[in-house]
Design goal:
The chain is an alpha+beta fold and 97 residues long. The chain has three helices and four strands. The protein has a four-stranded antiparallel beta sheet with strand order 2-3-1-4. α1 runs antiparallel to α3. Keywords: Monooxygenase, Oxidoreductase.
Length: 97
């Protein structure tokens, strides 16, 4: 089993906010990829639900995830998303095979 932790974050924008949410999320991608513990960081847009976005991230461990959560660009993203999300689900996953 790898030390890598996969994070899957599903975000649903409130009605009428999908374009703004997409812009905010896109702005977080490059700085997140540049973090020392980041092993992969991809933003997806659901083809069937215009307001649904999914991050699939790979991190070197919990320390890297905690550092990411404290990073200025992550904090700015959280502030910018206030009031724009109807739902947010975050899963921290360990590979089993």
């Amino acid at each position: 089993m790898s030390d890598t932790i996969t994070v899957v974050a599903v975000l649903r924008a409130v009605d009428g906010a999908a374009a703004k949410v997409a812009e905010i999320l896109h702005n977080a991608v490059e700085p997140s990829r540049a973090e020392a513990g980041c092993r992969g960081y991809v933003l997806h847009h659901d083809r069937s639900e215009d307001h649904k976005f999914v991050f699939v991230e790979h991190w070197a461990g919990m320390e890297a995830i905690e550092a990411h959560r404290q990073a200025p660009h992550y904090q700015a993203m959280g502030e910018a998303l206030k009031g724009l999300l109807a739902e947010r689900e975050v899963m921290l996953l360990d590979a089993q095979a």
